[in-house]
Structure formats: C-alpha cells, structure tokens
Amino acid sequence: DLNNMEETELSNIYVFFLGRDGDGDESIANIINKGKNRSHMILCGDIPKREMSIYLSQGNATALISYSEGFGLGIIEGFRFGLPALAVDDMDGMPDIYNENAMVKLIDRKQDSIISGIKELVSRSWNREKIIEHSQQFSGSRISNLYKKVYSEII
C-alpha cells in the first residue's frame, strides 16, 4: 500500500492502475482518494488492448496483487517488454509464470509485505533481456503448439 510509504521512498515511484475498477469502499479510486500519497497513484481505467503496449513500453514493472485476476496475463504482457513483476504467491498462475529473474513473489497481501516487495522491485537490478527471453515460453505460437500436441495425444 503506497499510502504507508514515506514520501522519500516514493519520490520516483508512480503507479498506474490499468483495468476495470470495482465499486464501493474497496474500489481503487476510493482507496487512492483517501490516501496521503494519491499524487503517486493514477487510475487509468479500462485501456483498449491496442493501447496497452503504449503503457507497457513506458513502464518499469508490473504488479498483480488482486484477488480477482488469477492467471496474470498482465504480467506476461509486461514480460514481453522486459518488465519485472510483483505478484502474490497464491495467484493461480504463479507456478506457471514464476521466474526468479523476472519476479518478486509476495507471501501475502499484507501492507508490510507489499511495501517490502515494492522496495525490492525498484531496487533490484533486472536483466530485461532475460525477462524477454522468459516471455517467449508464453508466445502464441508456442502455446498453440502445446495445444496441438495435447489434442494429438488425445486423438
């Protein structure tokens, strides 16, 4: 939670929330508006797929700590641009996408864990080429070949 980080820790950190927001007290917009560090958090809303690469090409990392998105497609999209990721260990897709050279894995969604994870994410030296290389295992052609193999084994 960026609201619990000191201003000096946030001086170069800006978080862009891309995607649909919820409603009520738990909505991202509500949390941002109540927070002391709201100038560092920008709610972009639902972004058309064709524009997502604009954001990712300018980013430094991706993060997924939500309860509702299970696989982590946004993380994989970020990998294609060499962006490291922050994600929670209980995310459904974690066993499939985790790579220590591309991710910081949180043990839970507690504020202290998230803050610690953000600090590690921004302080670590990442090899963007290795992250892009890791993303190749999620390419459309590789995934379709895996599906073909499964189908041919079934038939």
- Strand line-up of the largest beta sheet: 3-4-5
| SSE pattern | HEHEHEHEHEHHH
**Average of pLDDT:** 86
Form type: globular
Please estimate the helix content: 40-55%
- Fraction of residues in β-strands: 5-15%
> What about the largest sheet?
3 strands, parallel
**Class computed from helices, strands and strand pairing:** alpha/beta
- Number of DSSP-assigned strands: 5
Total helices: the number is 8
Cα-based radius of gyration, to the nearest Å? 17 Å
Which spans have pLDDT < 50 for at least 5 consecutive residues?
none
Distance between the termini: 50 Å
Give your account of this protein's structure:
The protein has helices at residues 7-10, 28-34, 49-58, 73-80, 94-97, 111-123, 128-135, 140-154; strands spanning 15-18, 41-45, 62-64, 85-88, 103-106. It is α/β, with parallel strands linked by helices and 155 residues long. The strands form two sheets. The protein has a three-stranded parallel sheet with strand order 3-4-5, sandwiched between helices. The chain has a two-stranded parallel ribbon with strand order 1-2. The longest helix is centred in the last third of the chain and has 15 residues, at 140-154. The N and C termini lie far apart (50 Å). The mean pLDDT is 86.
Short description:
The protein has eight helices and five strands, in the order αβαβαβαβαβααα. Helix content is 45%, strand content 13%.
Please describe the structure with a list of short key phrases separated by commas or semicolons.
globular, two-stranded parallel sheet, three-stranded parallel beta sheet, 155 residues, 8 helices, 5 strands, single chain, 13% strand, alpha/beta
